[in-house]
Amino acid sequence: MNASETGYRDWSNLTNLLDLPPQQWPMYFKEMLGVPAFHGKNAARWVFRRNAYSWQDMTDLPAQLRERLSEKMPLLTSTLVKVSHADDGACKILLRHSDDALVEAVGMPGTKGRTLCVSTQVGCAVKCVFCASGLDGVQRNLSAGEILQQVLWLRREQGDFHRLVVMGMGEPGHNLDATLQALDCLMHEEGFQFAARRITLSTVAPRGTLPQLAEWGRQISVAISLHAAVDEVRHELVPGVAKRTLLDTLQEADQLFFATGREYTVEYVLLRDRNDQPEHAKELAKLLQDRRCHVNLIPYNPVPELPFERPSSETMDEFVHTLHDAGLSVTLRTSLGGNQDAACGQLRRRTTSPPSGSEVV
Q1: What is the average pLDDT across 116-122?
Q2: Residues 6 or more apart from 281 whose CB is under 8 A from it?
């Protein structure tokens, strides 16, 4: 079933309209609110294309309807707890949901415009040993609307954006239906009208994830987090895929390419003396030979509780050259937001409750 068709069947249980695909808003307004359907279409246009963040912003909706919606169904059900600005222009937000679940998301500057990095879960069950997101495990999945609220909050803080990456807290493959529903809203003509090719979804590829993405068929970019070229090392670094082989994962990735025509990206975090040596580069080059993919090397971003270190610039450059010499397309990512713990691998499930009136830091 198409993710955009998986909205609420019992609309009486709906508590946030962002959990409903925008093309269904007109019918909801007509059947559940008893007003003309065009009000629902107008409301969706206000939210997704006219930068409205509350029902009261929508001046062409009847005042009584705006009051009713504001009372019964707030547009943003999360609270903005803290905004952190890094020296390099990255902006991290901390959101609190009604059950006190805390989620982080990031906006980053780029050469063509801003990129948003959003989360799909509160925490993460994969527990990559070098990543802060899984330190406290996973609390719950985010709904499609809760994923979209990160987009709205970041847009309100920083303005329009050019790209969106699903690379924040959580494993999208463990919450794929809600994630794809949120992405469908981003791309739909009644939603943000965002180009599929400006969206990247990052995943460790749990069983069934890549086949479902192939069936979904959208032209988004898919980044597969490998971090090693042999199963033994990958299973140590990424415990959440201990029952998956690299061959299984890459065969599914190849099928995804055949289904969508989009080359996939292989993500590889470089860890000093763990997976950054010349022999590791040669193993990765051999594994990816003749595959339709691009390699994105990610310098490790330090996490205080974890024992890993970033390799030297010389070591990383040598790794890049080895892959280039083997005929692979490769880039070394520039990390942003590090001085505010907003870089790749630094987002986390914050659980400390602040004293009344203070901020979570």
Answers
A1: 96
A2: 318, 319, 322, 323
